[in-house]
């Protein structure tokens, strides 16, 4: 088992101590002058332990958000566009900084160009909209997903807060978004947006439950709600001893294939990807709940979709694909590899099927996935019991 | 939303494929009424024809429907031939058949692309457009244009086949047959595609006939009505083909009809190329005409009819165009009632709306 | 003199009380539901502050995630003029 590269909190603490040492050095330098003596108590206060810890937290959160919401978000958008282009016999974005800007580039800068364009645009508020709610809803929406990053571990060390019930926290924050979508749909005072918002809420009602059932089965197997503990369990549980030599036999995808399937479907629905994208289905309700948003506000609500994709892929990798466990490479690399693998699956599914109708999806959710999820919990309990009794 | 609301799906809506407006009355998510509104694209083609001599409206007809221009120019030329009482030479007829069937393939390719995009399958959209490009290349080889070909003429066609055309056609068709068999499997094995199309927008045979629905939409409802077979024009009576008919009357049946017609068109073109006679491809036509002439053909979308009155001058006195989709849209509210709003895209995509010919 | 925890508690409690008042004074029902959701989230914050994490998370899960959505559904489905309500 390989170790982890990053100790996020330790690193942040070191950075905070370093910064405060420099600032204190300057402050005390100035404080030794006759008129500036009042700076010395400030320097003392900065040096105290709670302040250092708070600053370390802030740095840790900043690093995490930059890591996920800037680096991986842009990479995800770029990758999706390139992969879909390949799937559709196109080339995708190719813009580069070279002189012949459109020839043979990788197109990574396209996202930045798009964002720049969106930022320039006027922030239009429809006359009949509820102006406050119209502007609050996107912020609410994004914060629900960003707050997930607090408890989402990328390795044993790369985590902001190791919360005991972290998995529950992630899912709770994740499931706040439909409320924001509903509010956004209402605030625009547009029939399409309204229908889109209602569809999002209806879909959430039918998809949250199978998702939670799939997670419960994993929690039963792992005996913990802590994501790090769940991942560690996946390296220890030896249900299929002969297969254990390969290294993947301990992953929960083996005893929990049904749960993996349900969770993958629920996660596709959570991201509003194509088979389940009726809250924003273009051919039906134009662009659903984001129809009236323009400029960077649209960019925010649109880009948030990929942030959710990122979190969803991380959750699938965390719960079913053994998290960061793998040979040779460090933990972070393994986890990122698995996240991108799951992301490929998402793209592959979502660009090769037509959109399903909403009543059909509710039928599938309530009539098929919930019984399957319950059966899956039964299987998990059976496995745990068999393990405890030494049957396998 | 306890009350019923009218929703405008159009004129600027991703579903409409052009400028028209489908007003839909919703009760929650269910459609209780629908009301198609046309006229946003009205150019007055019929009136414009009256101030041009008999040859010039061909370019206007080309622009009637941007997806199948050639067939409209063809039906106009048939009407003028009927009015002037002339008979094109056999080679001209065969070339017209080949061009029209190629246009039908291109039109159905465009339809498949738009239909799949309506269902949310953008990959299928691009695949279908990619294959359509080959058909357009053939048309370009034959007529010189990719769209708005300006190819048929009263009394024949504008130009003869280029050398090597036949080999090119057979090569392309070999490829297309293989590709479209793959797409057929890709779509018909996909449960999501079946869920979206089967049982949606059911149009019973009686209703279809009463509303005047024609073409693939009628054949999807189980009526074996194909003007190429019932009222053969050009040389269709010499060719061996089978109208594609399905009984169900839903979007899936209409999809299967069009998919089948794609293969039938290939068969027809290959036969026509085999039997292509030598000789002139165009005869000279008189400049003036008097009397009445009409022609109806099997457009990719249904029965296209043009009725011309000549008053002895060199321009038509009156031109009347019967566009099939204009008539078919009258059946749309009935097909939509009771369905979900999500089915609007499936149904309107399934009947292959072309706004250019609706609004004339 | 209040220490840090007490300070945080006071801030959260103030937000909580404020949003709770806004729930009953809001003119539009949608806003009332929004304030209610916010009030319930701050309540979860107080639970977290008292180190009862499980209760706090369940509070977010059910009372902030699910219940307001049901409220909004109820508001939209029962009020006949929900669309024209906005000024």
Share of β-strand residues of chain A? under 5%
Order of helices and strands of chain C: HHH
Work out the oligomeric state of the chains in this entry.
heterotrimer
Terminal CA distance of chain A reads: 24 Å
Task: Produce the secondary structure layout.
The complex is a heterotrimer of chains A (392), B (360) and C (87).
Chain A: H1 8-31, H2 39-47, H3 49-87, H4 110-120, H5 131-146, H6 148-151, H7 166-174, H8 177-187, H9 191-222, H10 227-236, H11 257-270, H12 282-285, H13 295-320, H14 331-350, H15 358-389
Chain B: E1 5-9, E2 21-27, E3 30-37, H1 45-49, H2 57-62, H3 69-84, H4 90-118, H5 122-143, E4 152-153, E5 156-157, H6 165-188, H7 191-197, H8 205-211, H9 216-219, H10 227-230, H11 251-275, E6 290-299, E7 302-311, E8 316-322, H12 324-328, H13 332-336, H14 342-350, H15 355-359
Antiparallel strand pairs in B: 1-2, 2-3, 4-5, 6-7, 7-8
Chain C: H1 4-25, H2 29-49, H3 53-78
Q: Short description, anyone?
A:
The complex is a heterotrimer of chains A (392), B (360) and C (87). Chain A has 392 residues and is mainly alpha-helical. Helix content of chain A is 67%, strand content 0%.
What does this 3D model show about the protein?
The complex is a heterotrimer of chains A (392), B (360) and C (87). In chain A, helix 5 (131-146) runs parallel beside helix 13 (295-320), helix 8 (177-187) runs antiparallel to helix 9 (191-222) and helix 13 (295-320) packs across helix 14 (331-350). Chain A is built from 15 helices and no strands. Chain A has helices at 8-31, 39-47, 49-87, 110-120, 131-146, 148-151, 166-174, 177-187, 191-222, 227-236, 257-270, 282-285, 295-320, 331-350, 358-389. Helices cover 67% and strands 0% of the residues of chain A. Chain A starts with 7 loop residues before the first helix and ends with a helix. Chain A is mostly helical and 392 residues long. Chain A is globular. Chain A has one domain (8-388). Chain B is of the alpha+beta class and 360 residues long. Chain B has one domain: Cytochrome-c3 Hydrogenase, chain B, CATH 1.10.645.10. Chain B is built from 15 helices and eight strands. In chain B, strands 1-2-3 form a three-stranded antiparallel beta sheet. A three-stranded antiparallel beta sheet of chain B has the order 6-7-8. The longest helix of chain B is centred in the N-terminal third of the chain and has 29 residues, at 90-118. The two termini of chain B are 38 Å apart. The model of chain B has no long low-confidence stretch (mean pLDDT 86). With 87 residues, chain C is an all-alpha fold. Helix content of chain C is 79%, strand content 0%. The radius of gyration of chain C is 15 Å and the shape is flat. The interface between A and B is medium-sized, with 30 and 32 residues.
């Amino acid at each position: 088992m390989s170790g982890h590269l990053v100790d996020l909190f330790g690193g942040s603490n070191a950075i905070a101590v370093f910064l405060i040492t420099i600032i204190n050095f300057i402050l005390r330098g100035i404080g030794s002058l006759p008129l500036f003596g009042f700076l010395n108590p400030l320097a003392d206060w900065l040096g105290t332990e709670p302040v250092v810890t708070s600053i370390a937290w802030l740095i840790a959160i900043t690093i995490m958000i930059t890591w996920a919401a800037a680096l991986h978000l842009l990479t995800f958008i770029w990758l999706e566009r390139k992969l879909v282009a390949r799937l559709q016999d196109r080339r995708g974005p190719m813009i580069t900084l070279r002189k012949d800007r459109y020839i043979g580039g990788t197109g990574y800068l396209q996202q930045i160009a798009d964002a720049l364009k969106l930022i320039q645009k006027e922030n239009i508020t429809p006359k009949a909209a509820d102006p406050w709610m119209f502007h609050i809803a996107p912020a609410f929406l994004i914060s629900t997903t960003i707050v997930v990053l607090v408890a989402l571990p990328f390795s044993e060390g790369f985590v902001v807060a190791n919360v005991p019930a972290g998995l529950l926290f992630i899912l709770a924050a994740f499931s706040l978004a439909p409320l924001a979508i509903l509010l956004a749909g209402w605030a625009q005072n547009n029939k399409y947006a309204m229908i889109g918002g209602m569809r999002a809420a209806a879909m959430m009602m039918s998809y949250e439950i199978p998702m939670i059932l799939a997670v419960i089965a994993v929690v039963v197997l792992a005996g913990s709600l802590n994501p790090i503990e769940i991942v560690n369990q996946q390296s220890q549980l030896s249900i299929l001893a002969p297969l254990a030599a390969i290294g993947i036999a301990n992953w929960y995808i083996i005893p929990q294939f049904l749960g993996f399937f349900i969770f993958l479907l629920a996660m596709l629905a959570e991201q509003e990807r194509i088979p389940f994208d009726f809250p924003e289905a273009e051919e039906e309700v134009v662009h659903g709940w984001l129809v009236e948003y323009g400029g960077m506000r649209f960019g925010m609500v649109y880009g948030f979709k990929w942030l959710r994709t990122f979190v969803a892929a991380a959750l699938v990798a965390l719960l079913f694909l053994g998290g960061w466990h793998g040979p040779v490479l460090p933990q972070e690399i393994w986890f990122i590899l698995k996240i991108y693998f799951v992301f490929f699956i998402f793209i592959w599914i979502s660009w090769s099927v037509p959109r399903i109708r909403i009543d059909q999806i509710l039928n599938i959710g309530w009539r098929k996935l919930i019984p399957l999820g319950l059966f899956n919990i039964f299987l998990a309990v059976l496995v745990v019991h068999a393990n405890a009794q030494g049957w396998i | 939303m306890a009350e019923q609301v009218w929703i405008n799906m159009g004129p600027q809506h991703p579903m409409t494929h052009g400028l028209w407006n489908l007003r839909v009355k919703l009760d929650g998510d269910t459609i209780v009424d629908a009301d198609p509104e046309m006229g946003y694209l009205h150019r007055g083609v019929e009136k414009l024809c009256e101030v041009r001599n008999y040859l010039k409206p061909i370019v206007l007809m080309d622009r009637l429907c941007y997806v199948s221009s050639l067939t409209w120019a063809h039906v106009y030329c048939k009407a003028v031939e009927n009015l002037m009482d002339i008979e094109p030479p056999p080679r001209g007829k065969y070339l017209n058949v080949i061009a029209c069937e190629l246009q039908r393939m291109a039109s159905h390719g465009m339809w498949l692309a738009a239909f799949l995009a309506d269902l949310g399958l953008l990959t299928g959209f691009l695949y279908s457009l990619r294959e359509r490009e080959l058909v357009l290349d053939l048309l370009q080889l034959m007529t010189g244009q990719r769209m708005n070909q300006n190819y048929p003429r009263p009394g024949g066609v504008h130009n003869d086949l280029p050398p090597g055309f036949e080999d090119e056609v057979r090569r392309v068709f070999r490829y297309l047959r293989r590709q479209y068999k793959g797409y057929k499997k890709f779509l018909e094995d996909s449960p999501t595609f079946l869920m979206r199309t089967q049982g949606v927008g059911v149009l019973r045979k009686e209703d279809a006939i009463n509303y005047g629905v024609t073409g693939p939409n009628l054949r999807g409802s189980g009526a074996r009505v194909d003007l190429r077979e019932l009222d053969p024009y050009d040389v269709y009576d010499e060719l061996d083909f089978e109208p594609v008919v399905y009984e169900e009357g839903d979007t899936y049946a209409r999809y299967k009809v069009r998919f089948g017609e794609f293969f039938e068109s290939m068969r027809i073109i290959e036969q026509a190329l085999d039997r292509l006679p030598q000789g002139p491809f165009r005869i000279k036509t008189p400049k003036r005409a008097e009397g009445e002439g009409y022609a109806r053909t099997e457009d990719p979308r249904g029965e296209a009819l043009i009725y011309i009155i000549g008053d002895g001058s060199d321009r038509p006195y009156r031109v009347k165009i019967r566009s099939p989709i204009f008539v078919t849209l009258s059946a749309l509210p009935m097909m939509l009632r009771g369905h979900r709003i999500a089915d609007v895209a499936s149904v309107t995509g399934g009947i292959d709306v072309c706004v250019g010919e609706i609004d004339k | 003199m209040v220490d840090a925890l007490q300070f945080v508690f006071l801030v959260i409690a103030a937000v909580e009380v404020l949003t709770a008042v806004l729930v009953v004074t809001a003119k539009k029902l949608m806003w009332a539901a929004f304030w209610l959701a916010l009030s319930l989230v701050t309540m979860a914050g107080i639970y977290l502050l008292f180190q009862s994490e499980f209760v706090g998370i369940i509070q977010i899960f059910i009372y902030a995630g699910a219940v307001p959505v049901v409220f909004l559904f109820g508001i939209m489905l029962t009020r006949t003029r929900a669309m024209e309500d906005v000024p």
